[in-house]
Amino acid sequence: MMKKHLLLSVLLAITVQARLAAQEWMNIYHEAQSTHWMMPILVDSIDFGVLSADGSLLATRLNDGFVVPMATEIIDSLGFYTAPEDSVKDKYQTFQMFVFTEGARPIDTRDSYIPCYISLNARGSYSNRWVHAGIRGRGNSTWNWYDKKPYRIKLDKKEKMLGMDKAKSWVLLANYRDITDVMNTYVFELGRMMGMPYTNHTRYVELFVNNEYLGVYQLTEQVQQGSNRVNISDDRGILISLDVDDGPAEAPDATDNFWTKGYNMPATVKYPEDDDLTDERRDSIREVFAELETAIKNKNYAKASQLMDMESFARYVMLQEFIYNVELSAPRSVFIHKDGDGPWVMGPLWDFDAGFDFDWSNMYTGHTFFANYRETVMGSNPVRRNGNYSYVPAFFTDLFGTPEFVQLYKQTWRQYADSIVSRPWSEVEKYVNGLRRGAMRRESRRWPVNGKSFETELAKMKTWLDNRASYIGNLIENIPEPQPVVPIDNERLCGTIDVNTSMEWRLGYSQGSQVEIDRNQLFQLLEVDESTFNKGFVKIVPLMTDGSEGANRTNGVYGGWFDANGNPGQYAQGHVYIEVFNDLFNWDCGLYKEQCSHSAHTVTMQYQCSVGSELRKVNIRVNFTISNSGGGWWW
């Protein structure tokens, strides 16, 4: 540890040169950890460097009154140098970012930006940055569940950041759930290899906030409209996300979201933004998207391929299935964009630390991935949604009922199969080599996870991907080839069957198979025999009280959670549910007893059976009587 009077003399000597450079960096060396930190010094006044009275603190005063404190007990030596301009561009090394908030305020909100200075040490690869900005929290589960928080940055003006194109908005991903820190990076590199549009870039930084070391973060672009982001036109471009967290159920007061008309998915308009998004514009976007939904639902491949870039769709769902990203089923973080009269295009890609077979049973505290490479989201026959997430929106699966899309999907896999692991992984390894130069060691000290290490999890990830590629390749090659689709030119409601059944309030969720459908009555109304019924493409959908289709939010292949008014929706507002698994005539049911205080509910499901070019429908009106023979109503 250097003596305090020597430290002071160094600082005083430097002040003579104070006006020779606009920005310099202080190289702090800590012998015990064999660590160099680069701290920014803005040289603009003769008293920029001072020691506290007792010699315990080095302070640097900035021109807006910010004070940068650094405890001198961690300093063994100091040196100063002027930051270089662009030289060798090594994007794979781990950089350093320093954030100094106004008044050293903690970053404890997602609702508003806190003024700050941000300094980037580009370590000789790019131009260093010293900029004024705002910073706030971001994310949903990652913000609420974990101590290591993600952040969003908004610069005062557009700037390049570590070689990435100019913009104001940037994201710092904490990747706390992911011990490898490279899951998102792998997917970004895979997306770039597959030609997915506007795929994000990665730069790793070690982050300091008010001189507290917060570990390794992934600096990347914010998904938004812009010439250097999603480059759609200012006046006619559309960017939406399909995301439960931002949708009408979780954000009912927002004016930028809606339920889609065709598949009742939660959608949020990301562009146009704010004041440019009128109610009329939002509703028109809903109608334009409904055209695409209708074409997909009708399995009209020719029309759907006019309205959407079908290759982007095939690549997108394939990538999601390949890395087992279960967020597709919610859905969450699914972006889709459109430029003027052009087609809808899937992407950009976003948010993949819930893939790779994440163990959701200990999601609040666990970091467990890679247990089973045989899990699927959509299944071996996606049109039937026979995977682990049978409630994945049929928007992503109905086209597997067309021979044209199945052929395209298989061709797409064959195009990338040989390199789907090796090419993106070769890029990942370059980032990993940069992280190995001390950054991940410091990360593990700052955020230790018992029994797990960076190197061990990295090896598991590579093994899982290799096994996954072989398994998914075989699964895709064996997706059944559907018969050519006969276009539906007529729909007919053939009648209604009433089913009366009872549930015990005290039994709650598990009531068993209480809803039994008379199959002979059903066949009679549909005017089919059992053989014709089995050959027809059959679906069972929940109906809103106005007769429109709702969404299945249960774990069944078909089903619905119904609210107090009998409308299907989210579990959080649900009172009773119906689930249909393999038996199309015997349905499970249950109730959310902490929420349901009703003695009766009536809900409606609908059979839909294609017979030639006609879609025949039969409503099943289920009248639940809810008894409480055990006593003890919760209210």
Sum up the structure in keywords.
30% strand; 7-stranded mixed beta barrel; alpha+beta; 635 residues; 5-stranded antiparallel sheet; disordered N terminus; single chain; globular; 27 strands; 4 domains
Can you characterise this structure?
The protein has 635 residues and is α+β, with helices and mostly antiparallel strands. It has four domains: 79 residues; 128 residues, no CATH class; 241 residues, no CATH class; 138 residues, Immunoglobulin-like (Sandwich), CATH 2.60.40. Helices cover 22% and strands 30% of the residues. The strands form six sheets. Strands 7-8-9-10-11-13-12 form a seven-stranded mixed beta barrel. Strands 15-16-14-17-18 form a five-stranded antiparallel sheet. A five-stranded antiparallel sheet has the order 20-25-24-22-23, with no helix packed on it. A hairpin with a 5-residue loop joins strand 22 and strand 23. The N terminus is likely disordered.
- What is the 3D form? globular
Quickly count the domains: 4
Mean pLDDT equals 86
Total number of helical segments?
12
Major beta sheet, strand line-up: 7-8-9-10-11-13-12
Straight-line distance between termini: 66 Å
DSSP E strands, number: 27
Assembly state here?
A: single chain
Q: Unreliable segments (pLDDT under 50, ≥5 consecutive)? A: 1-24, 29-34, 41-48, 61-67, 79-87
Instruction: Estimate the strand proportion.
Output: 25-35%
Alpha-beta classification: alpha+beta
